[in-house]
Each structure stands twice: as C-alpha cells, then as structure tokens.
Design brief:
Elements lengths: L4 H10 L5 E6 L2 H9 L5 E3 L1 H9 L9 H14 L4 E4 L7 H14 L3 E5 L18 H14 L6 E6 L2 H4 L1 H13 L4 E4 L5 H10 L4 E4 L11 H7 L3 E4 L2 H20 L12 H7 L2 H19 L3 H18 L1
Parallel strand pairs: 1-2, 1-8, 2-3, 3-4, 4-5, 5-6, 6-7, 7-8
Helix pairs in contact: 2-4, 4-5, 5-6, 8-9
Length: 318
Amino acid sequence: MSANPAARRLRERLDRPELLVVPGVTGALHGRLAEHAGMEAIFVTGAGIANTEFGWPDLGLVTMSETVEMAGRIVRAVDLPAIVDADTGYGNHLNVMRTVEELERLGAAAIMLEDQRAPKRCGHFAGKEVVETREMVEKLVAAGRARQDPATIIVARTDAIATEGLERALERAAAYVRAGADVIFVEAPRDEAELAAIPAAVDVPTVVNIVEGGATPLLPGAQLEVLGFRIAFFANVALRVAAASVLDAFRELRAERTTNGLLDRMLSWQDRQALVGLDEWTALEAAIAEDARAIADGRADRAAQVKAAIAEDARGRG
C-alpha cells in the first residue's frame, strides 16, 4: 500500500491515454497557482530553480540539498502530484540512492534522473555529453533499491539524441526500462518524425518537453496525444510569462513612478490572500487561542479534548 496518495494518483492518471499537461513551477506560489488553475500535476523544474532562485543558467550549479529544500516547500504547499527534476542524481549511483530517499521522504510523486555527464546543462543547449549506458543503468537500479514506496515513479531521461542520434537514444530508453524506469523522457527530438518514434519504442509512458524556442517542434497537445505521449512538460511557461510581465511592470513603474496603470494587471488583494490561505491561518490562530484560554481557565474537559485532537493529528501525519 502506498504511503503517498499523490504518487498513487499520478500512477492511476498515467494509466489513461489522455495527455497529462504538466506546468513547470519553481516555488510554492506557482504551485498553488497551478492547483487553482485546475492542473493535475506539477513539474519542479531544475532549470527554473537555477534561474529564479539563484539567477544562474541551467548548467548543473544547483546542489542536491538546494533542490530538496525548494522541492519540499512546493510539495508542502499543494495537494498535486509533484514530478521533481533531480538532474543527474548529483553524483554516482550511491548519491542517487540518497537523492531518491530525500525526495521520496518529502513527498515527491515522481523523481526524474538524466544521463548527462557532469556538469549537466539544459537539454536544449549545445555541448552536452552523456555517460555510458551502463552508468545510467546503475543509477536506475540504485534508484529502484532506494525507493521505499512502490507508487513512487522513476522517470529516466536521456539526452543522447544530440550526441549519438535518435537510434542510440531509443536503445538507451529500452535499456532504462529494463533497469526499472517507469516513465521515459527522450529529450530534444528535432522534428515530428523523431517525436513519433519515441512512444512507439518503449512500452511505458513517455514524456515530451515543450520548450518554446528550443529544439522540439511546438505541436498542439491533441497531436502529441495521437503520437502516444502521456505527459507533456511545459517547464518554462510560469517562469517566462511571469518574468516578461514583471519586467514590463518594473519598466512602467520606473517611467510613471506609480502603479495606477498596473492595477488591472495585478492579482487582487483578496485573491492574493485567498491564494496563500490567509483565512485558514486566521481561523487556526483563533482556534488555538480559544483552546489555550479554556485550558488556562482550568476547564479539564476541554484540555482532554485538545490533547486527544493533537494526538489524532500526530497519528494522521505519521
């Protein structure tokens, strides 16, 4: 029995043929926005964390502990299944074991590992290198050993199209399935024919990564579904739309020295507070204060009820 309901829901969703559209998020607020928009899952994007949290390019500069910290904040903020980008696993197969343990502990529904050689880089950058197939297979076997919850999904990504061509990339994909990968992600196919070849090559769900301006054609979701893809990442949409909007707002603020012209482009004050759960926190604050007053006034019956409720909450979290 799975201890992670989100992982179980994601597995069940992948049993359906309809394309699962997954936006990339880089922080808890974007995670909540995805949830409020009705998305079914989120992708905690490594490139997005590098860009937004550190102002760095996607060149493998973010560490495992930094990824775990950021992913943990996002997972705690939402009830959606989170697919977490774990880059190369941050080392060899033993490092992969620790990475999987840490991400599974925080509640990741799926963990993505890739076969690039360190320092890794964005899948749509030039200059990538990949490790030997056997080294990536070792990492996937290690990930399977480290996984404690059978529902946790292991996504194996290969960047070999750019370095070895499509045929070799598909051979790697098949080897990664044999090593225990639940989902296959062949990064940066260059045309529709290469896209079509990927789902046909393996008998597990496949991912396509839509990067506007990158190597992969921008096909509509309906067409990707017909080709056989189960998941489409839109890893950059939140980052790039938000960055463009904020840049425009800052330029207008600098020029006009007022935000009056920006009011209709802002999240309202009320919507902002609703998004971050202000009413729930306020109600919790009041309930705790009321419990404390009752206990301080010597109401033994209320004290017993509070202790029982706290114990029940602790059992639920356990």
